[in-house]
Amino acid sequence: MAIAAAGVLAPAFGFLPTLGGTELSLDPFVRFFTAPGIFRAMGQSLYVGLSATFLAVILTHSTLAAFYTSRWFAPLAWQSRLILVAPHVAIALSIAFLFTPSGLMMRWLSPWATGWTSPPDYLFPQDPWGLALIAGLAVKEFPFLLGLAIAQLGPINPRPALHAAASMGYGPLRAFTLVVTPQLATRLRFPVYVALAYAISSVDQALVLGSSPAPILSVRLLQWFNDSDLGARFPLAAGALVLVALTALGFAIWWLGEKGFAAFIHYGAASGRRTGPVDGAMRTGAGLGVLTLTLTTTGLFGLGLNAFASHWRFPDDWPGGFSLDIFGGALSAIAPAAGTSAGLALASAVVSTLWVLAALEASHNHRRLAVTLHALMFVPLVIPDISLMFGLSGFWAALRLDGHWLTVLWAHLLFTIPYCWLIVAGPFRNFNEGLVISARLLGAGRWGAFFRVKIPGLAAPILAGFGIAALVSASLYLPTLLAGGGRITTLATESIALSQSGDRRLLGALALAMMVLPLIAVEGSALAPKWLLRNRSGLNGATA
Amino acid sequence: MTGHDPDICEIGANEIPRTGLHACSLEFRIDGRILFPAVEFHAGPGEIVSLMGPSGVGKSTLLAFLSGVLSPGVTASGRVFLDGEDITQRPPENRRIGLLLQDAALFPHLSVEQNLGFGLSRRFRGEARRKAIADALEKAGLPGFEKRDPGTLSGGERARVALFRALLAEPRAILLDEPFSRLDTDLRAQIRRFVFDAIAGSGLPAILVTHDAADAEAAGGPVITLQGVNGPERPG
Amino acid sequence: MVPFWTAARNYSLMGIERIGRGPRAGLGRAIGAGIFAFLGLVLLAGCNPGAQAPDKGSAKRFPADRPEAGWAEIEREARGQNVYFNAWAGDNRVNAFIAWSAVELRRRHGITLVHVKTQDTAEAVTRIVAEKSAGRDRDGSVDLVWINGENFAALKARNLLLGPFVPRLPAAEFIDFARQPVFSSDFTIPVEGYEAPWGLSFFVFTHDSARTPAPPRDFSELAKWARAHPGRFTYPAPPDFIGSTFLKQALLSLSPGKADMFAAPVKMEQFAEISAPLWAYLDALHPFLWRKGATFPANGPAQRQLLADGEVDLSMAFNPSDARAAAASGQLPETARSYGFRSGSVANAHFLAIPVNAKAREAALVTINFMLSPEAQARKSDIRLWGDSGVLAIDRLPAAEQARFATLAAKGHLASAEIPGPVLAEPHPSWMEALEKAWRIRYGAN
Fold this sequence. Notes:
The complex is a heterotrimer. Chain A is mostly helical. Chain A is built from 24 helices and four strands. In chain A, the strands form two sheets. Chain A has a two-stranded antiparallel ribbon with strand order 1-2. A two-stranded antiparallel sheet of chain A has the order 3-4. The two termini of chain A are about 40 Å apart. Chain B is α/β, with parallel strands linked by helices. Chain B has one domain (about 5-225): Rossmann fold. In chain B, about 30% of the residues lie in helices and about 20% in strands. In chain B, strands 1, 2, 3, 5 and 6 form a five-stranded antiparallel sheet that branches. In chain B, strands 7-8-9-4-10 form a five-stranded parallel sheet, sandwiched between helices. Mean pLDDT of chain B is about 85; it is low at about 230-235. Chain C has two domains: about 70-200 and about 350-410, D-Maltodextrin-Binding Protein, domain 2, CATH 3.40.190; about 205-345 and about 420-445, D-Maltodextrin-Binding Protein, domain 2. In chain C, helix 2 crosses helix 12 (about 360-370), helix 7 crosses helix 9 (about 270-285) and helix 7 (about 240-255) packs across helix 15. The radius of gyration of chain C is 26 Å and the shape is globular. Chain C is of the alpha/beta class. In chain C, strand 1, helix 3 and strand 2 (about 110-120) form a beta-alpha-beta unit. In chain C, the strands form three sheets. In chain C, strands 1, 2, 3, 6, 10 and 11 form a six-stranded mixed sheet that branches. Chains in contact: A-B, A-C. The interface between A and C is large, with 120 and 102 residues.
């Protein structure tokens, strides 16, 4: 962490000896702020990040409020899991394919409804208002937050409160909004800030959906990184710091909004109104949530269908012919990248899980270490990854570490360990210590009790943490690119490199291939505890 | 057969009392298994009917049915009438049946005042609203508790706030689901007396689910003991 | 269906409130130390492969660094090396060709060819410059780069290229230097053996003859056509090389008779005057572009997909067989055609070069030699596979090798190298840089 900080701070203040910068100065900041269009890029980053996160949070809460007690909940949860495992780029490409003028929607509506035999000329995606990028980010964050929210409903135990509210004359949607949503929001605060930091600084979706003549700040930084004029490294370092500050500003704005929203909901609850404008908003949000999930699933399906199309011309509803050539060719082309992805995902997940368990057990009963670790865990999640990675990449390059598999693993661990921690730490600490004490009283040693009682008892969250670590590893683009020096190719870097090559049939094949690996990781980690604990309803209950 | 006949409620509809909470021929099944033989009971205004029985027999299921929040896995038959109206098909929020639960179910994110405001009818505005809440706290023996965080209240205080929150919503009947089970023995009698007196004072019909005979005795009304049915129902 | 996350329901995300206090501080500190030890271990493990780099003193041992070393010696040394080939990856036909080369190189020469997929060759240039400035003189991460024009000029000017190596390649004997001056002069920069010609192309437009039977054939027709068909034309955003080439071709066509000036480095005081007709032309054209010129496709293949989707009526490529190759793969209909402007087409060659700090120099040389072999060149010229014109003088090849090309030509699968109209020579690379910069200021982010 300190290395990353030094790697950004030094060049930001003009110190980068290999490039002739030997004096501390503010010149990099001057160069940064005088770059054309930079304020627009900063504003766009902030506005896109806040809007996308706002949208994702609203969709999460309203979908949960409207469908928590409904039988439609299970299919919605399944769709959201499908989107969760789909890589960012696949989501971006499927949104692009859905809504672009020659995309799936227009194909299905034309010519019978629109009268068009050639596509209309409107600007989406890559619109200058960033709507496509906001949609892409929100679509990806929504399932992430929804999943964590569902997990949090257990400890909140909303049923008695909902029944009490119903008995006082509140309909289910309003009851959930006034009674459960604020509690849920408190527990979801941290993941929401993670999502916000991500949305402000993400690169991969912005490359596909963002406006190309007026890119957001993180994309501008990447362009500077790739500039053959190495002098661009100075404003880049300044920009990396500005992006951190921008994220902090985003946090502050969000925090204020959060306060206002909480006051509004508390006021609404205390007012005794049994109906109100919030209901309509939540109902709209829930409708939008269902629409979002359904459209994205449709988009992924449509994109995947391209992989098997020999040709598919506008305005045909379906491909004009099917062929396995493109898909087969794509599979053999990406096989090495898939192997690297799988290897990295597996290694990241194993190391992360072991590390998290060791750190948790070590910091157990040791408050100061635990608090420090806990705080440390979250730094990589809220610092923009381009800032963090730029800081580290200078260090890696200086030590000749870039381009090595282990360096990429190192970069991945920076992100997979915190996510794994996020899943495992809570259950680990809430574990019934009585069981461990009983085991020790029965003669088991400290580690014997750990391995024979605690680990099996925590199998479900540990496997979930393992799955999420693998998932995160498989989706990392920028860390892989910078740590790998372009030489380590994973499905994530491959998909971005190819996303601009145009041939949608190939992109469809790539998107399908990229979903298989995470799907295995996630389904596996969901099913494994059920299988392992098939005769242990006392533990299995925790997963139902 | 258990002697259960759903049509009996239809035929006898004219004889349903015009006041109070009336349950007719209630029967529940989970996976085809009947929980207990069909029951029928009536709670008049200010009267408390106590339901007893071993744990797991379905007391809470019965209460959930009365308040309209039965879990999807349970099939139910029978009718519920409130002041002569059939409310069996009504959604819970339109039944006006208050609920008092084991853990009080105060909303942790709202202050005591806001919790009470959640229940209080919209008829009260502005100053009247503030006064209605202050009066309720006065009656609950908790004057000046408006700004308190529910998390800082004792069990007895929570129970009293929950009771007045339910009453401020102006229900036409009230259901009590083991509301005293988490209280200490000495406090228990005191709170029980307080709650029962308040219900009697409000003139509301009430159903009390409990596994404590002392609760039922203190309630003073009819006591119905539910006995589980063993094994699935067989035809003939 | 149980979502995986429900497995972890019983926790608080910020929950550290349950942590007890205990006398285990010693153990905690030990584990804290262990964490750092672990990081150190990762660091050391990461260092290890770097340690294999040879020290500078022994550099002379390597055949690539000794001009007198024979080809056999180079091939022997190349065996077992990994070649990191930085090549633009925007076209999957090109990627497939490189993948095929990797298989053949491993089989024949024991070389592992790794395609480092770049979106812009400038990325590789940046990497080479950055590594060299950090003192990486012999173990750079780029071994081979697909290059021409301004990127070649940038590396050559800074002495960052290995060479002259072309004369050492056995396959260089058949390169058609005599008939193709562009093989010796890349964007007016003398090649001098620092890069080996790999292919030859000229700039074409592609259209669907069924949809657009009469496409524009020069710039004044294009302006009229775009006005009559608003939203049906665009070009890739510079600095993509197709987009930049479109600008260059427009500049050369709209400011004729300035060949001498274009052959020399641009002088900024002349640039405004000479480029004025181009900007006037683009200012008039842009309102009638696809998306009204508010955005542009990322590159040539992206525009080809737009043509396939019917969003535009024209795409452009640096490959006269673009239409035939795309039709063969099914991306474009059989009625797709490529053609050159009658006002002239920009023609250039593309090359392979080795950075001066490349690690696997011998294997890079062997790889280039393989890429120039008649077999690889014939495959590259096959429009069903890539369809890029080759660099060999076919008439000088041995008869057996000539037959490969004859067979392809007989079936109509050989990429044509014939340019229909006048050839527009590439201007000096500084013109391209000036155009790209001016374009960004006028039409890019502001």
